[in-house]
Amino acid sequence: MRVLGIETSCDETGVAVYDSQQGLLAHSLYSQVELHSEYGGVVPELASRDHVRKLLPLIDEVMAAAGTQSQDIDGIAYTSGPGLIGALMVGACAGRSLAYAWGCKALGVHHMEGHLLAPMLEANPPAFPFVALLVSGGHTQLVRVDGIGRYRMLGESLDDAAGEAFDKAAKMLDLDYPGGPQIAKLAEQGEPGRFRFPRPMTDRPGLDFSFSGLKTFTLNTVAEHKLESGLPDDQCCADIAYAFEDAVVATLVIKCRRALEQEGLKTLVIAGGVSANKRLRAELESKLAKIDAGVYYARHEFCTDNGAMIAYAGCQRLLAGQEQELALKVQPRWDL
Ligand code: KG4
Ligand code: ZN
């Protein structure tokens, strides 16, 4: 089965062609990061308009790169939620209409299921069952995964998502959006041990998260050390970035280990934008090795939003016989 995947839930236009026999044939991404950077976050209306401009040319490019004609496509998978409603509508409308014109199947895919399955595109994919840590700009969730569509929520953030916390902390340090990679880069210059930030909700049982207190702690630390410019000096900013990243990573590691032990599993999958974080990967690898557990993640470009994960997830669902009626449905909020 050959599937065209379309991702437009936020600020990346992602397109890919996945073949169940031959694997990923081609993929491409157009990022709107520059468009939104002057606003310090994603402007929904601008995102939708840019998807409208970029999507069809990108589909054309990816189909050509995959050496695929429309008649070779068996199905089209598009992200139908969760995400920005206008942005979702662009991908859903284009995907559904192309499928109608090409006479193939179409299916809306859950964005987080796409992230969750992205490590399956790698050479050494994880085997079911496993625990997945989904860490993106909108979600922080621990999920038990027994197979495609067999997901059980173990814990989630009660307030901010991990990526959102990175983005907000970055703003406090006057760094560009998206903040995760910027904090990670600045943290490399930070001095370990100068500050110690709290590890929220790790001293009590359970697998839920809360990052809003850490955000306030960061704000207070910045305020305490700020100079006339309104910011602490460069070294202090780096030390704060280090302590912030350290606290988020330590918190995620503790909960992942707890989830694996609770479920009696030895495989952890990390997915979503924050899974690109090098310190998170390194800390998980070293801490989980102690309990003989392995960590799986997607290549860097498939940690953040992309079309390949949607093509893959859609292909698995279409192979299982799922498809949808012609009427479009997108869901800005949607549980996994
Ligand atoms: O999965 P994603 O591309 O979009 C959503 O579905 O939200 O995740 C984006 C999030 C942003 O909050 C971004 O700051 C964060 O992932 N992120 C990172 C890193 N790269 C991206 N956070 C920490 N470290 C990184 N290296
Ligand atoms: Zn995402």
UniProtKB/TrEMBL annotation:
Residues involved in Fe cation binding: 111, 115, 305
Limits of the Gcp-like domain: 24-312
Keywords: Acyltransferase, Cytoplasm, Iron, Metal-binding, Transferase, tRNA processing
EC numbers: 2.3.1.234
Protein name: tRNA N6-adenosine threonylcarbamoyltransferase
InterPro entries assigned: ATPase_NBD, Gcp-like_dom, KAE1/TsaD, TsaD
Record flagged with keyword Amino-acid biosynthesis: no
Entries under NCBIfam families matching the protein: gcp_kae1, T6A_TsaD_YgjD
Compartments reported by the entry: Cytoplasm
GO cellular component term, pick one: cytoplasm
Pfam families, A to Z: TsaD (PF00814)
Role of this protein: Required for the formation of a threonylcarbamoyl group on adenosine at position 37 (t(6)A37) in tRNAs that read codons beginning with adenine. Is involved in the transfer of the threonylcarbamoyl moiety of threonylcarbamoyl-AMP (TC-AMP) to the N6 group of A37, together with TsaE and TsaB. TsaD likely plays a direct catalytic role in this reaction.
Organism: Pseudoteredinibacter isoporae
Family according to the record: Belongs to the KAE1 / TsaD family.
Reactions catalysed according to its record: L-threonylcarbamoyladenylate + adenosine(37) in tRNA = N(6)-L-threonylcarbamoyladenosine(37) in tRNA + AMP + H(+)
Cofactor note: Binds 1 Fe(2+) ion per subunit.
Binding residue positions for substrate: 134-138, 167, 180, 277
GO aspect biological process, one term: tRNA threonylcarbamoyladenosine modification
Cofactors: Fe(2+)
PANTHER family: TRNA N6-ADENOSINE THREONYLCARBAMOYLTRANSFERASE, TRNA N6-ADENOSINE THREONYLCARBAMOYLTRANSFERASE, MITOCHONDRIAL
UniProt key word 4Fe-4S: no
GO molecular function: iron ion binding; tRNA N(6)-L-threonylcarbamoyladenine synthase activity
